[in-house]
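Risk register update: the risk of archive-format incompatibility is retired. Evidence:
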Amino acid sequence: MTDTRADTRSPVPTGEFPFAWEDFHQIAALVHGEAGIVLPESKANLVYSRLAKRLRAIGLRNFRDYCTLIASDEGVDERQALIAAMTTNVTKFFREAHHFEHLEKNVLPDLAAAARKGARVRIWSAGCSSGEEPYSIALSILRVMPDAAKHDVLILASDIDPDMIAKAKLASYPAARLADIPAVMRTGIETDRGDERFHFGESVKRLVRFRRLNLLRPWPMRGSFQAIFCRNVMIYFDQPTQNDIWSRFAQQLVPNGHLYIGHSERIASDEQPFVLTGQTIYRLKEGGR
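Archived output:
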């Protein structure tokens, strides 16, 4: 029997490149399978506008050919470009400042004391984008522990987008962004190019290690972290994926370790081994691992 129900969806985006719902669904399925990112049909216009730039860049004339490319063995690089296009890398130094205040006042003093006695200190910036978050953590560490580089203190900074990792490694930013960094934390920052840009010196950079990492895939880390920052990343995932990653974070944290999440994100405390201790700040429960 023919389905005569009316299609209540918004019209498929139209423009320079032919784009069908079949194309959208294939792209959405690939993005979800590769990166866990959920693209409902309401995102069709966003998908079209962001990927139209990719079609122009690689010289394709329609989305059907683009779908064929990303599904092929030859499309591995374009699949990475697709995932990057579907994420929004909006960040700044010391974004959600209360997280860094909590880190500096409630977490780092004990960690600094332990590090000076030979303990291993590790903090993870999961979804580090272009590096503002891990460098903000590094500046916070140096504020509390100026001699951090002499001890076993390290920040792991990871992101799914290799272009963001490459940008973060440069540790170079427009001079206007310096205003986001408190004046008392600007030690180790240098300016160049007629003060148009600033960059972090070795005292900051040596505390951070960058690597590409897909949160949906196996994590290579074997040691534990005293704190994990994963902010404004879970908003891209469906609830089952979020629950799985929260649980995996719990396995990576030391007892009473802290997890900092985005302002619009929440963890269901009855389903996860975390207790809310501040605004979007969670502590691993005793025995939570």
